[in-house]
């Protein structure tokens, strides 16, 4: 699993039929201090996340193990919205703050 921040959405009206019904989000990887890097992925959203939220995402074969992505050609999936994270007693992020 990787921490990421949703920085955008992706809309595709023409796509493989098995992808119908999935929402796609543009996600940038985030380091442990909450700083976004330069790499990004397009991930299927399995949890209803929105732009600006911090999420956990998985890629590779793990991305096809949610109910929404099972047997679909997905390489990345958002599987959790982060409420808070803490490192060595220091709160790095709190959603309600």
Describe this structure in words.
The strands form two sheets. A five-stranded mixed beta barrel has the order 1-2-3-5-4. It has no helices and seven strands. It has a single domain (2-94), classed as OB fold (Dihydrolipoamide Acetyltransferase, E2P), CATH 2.40.50. Strand 2 and strand 3 (36-45) form a beta hairpin. The two termini are 24 Å apart. The chain has strands spanning 2-10, 23-30, 36-45, 54-59, 76-81, 84-87, 90-94. It is an all-beta fold. The model has no long low-confidence stretch (mean pLDDT 91).
Fraction of residues in β-strands: over 45%
CATH architecture level-2 label:
Beta Barrel
Largest sheet: 5 strands, mixed, barrel
What's the CATH topology name?
A: OB fold (Dihydrolipoamide Acetyltransferase, E2P)
Indicate how many domains the architecture comprises. Answer: 1
Structural class: mainly beta
CATH H level, superfamily name: EutN/Ccml
User: With helices defined by DSSP (H or I, 4 residues minimum), what is the helix count?
Assistant: 0
Q: How is the largest sheet built, in terms of strand order?
A: 1-2-3-5-4
Q: State the end-to-end distance.
A: 24 Å
What string gives the helices and strands in order? EEEEEEE
Say how many strands there are: 7
């Amino acid at each position: 699993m990787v921490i990421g921040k949703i920085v955008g959405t992706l809309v595709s009206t023409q796509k493989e039929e098995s992808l119908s019904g999935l929402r796609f989000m543009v996600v940038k990887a985030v380091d442990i201090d909450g700083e976004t890097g330069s790499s990004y992925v397009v991930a299927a959203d399995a949890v209803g996340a929105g732009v600006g939220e911090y999420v956990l995402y998985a890629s590779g074969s793990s991305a096809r193990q949610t109910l929404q992505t099972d047997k679909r050609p997905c390489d990345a999936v958002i599987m959790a919205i982060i409420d808070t994270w803490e490192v060595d007693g220091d709160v790095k992020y709190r959603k309600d703050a």
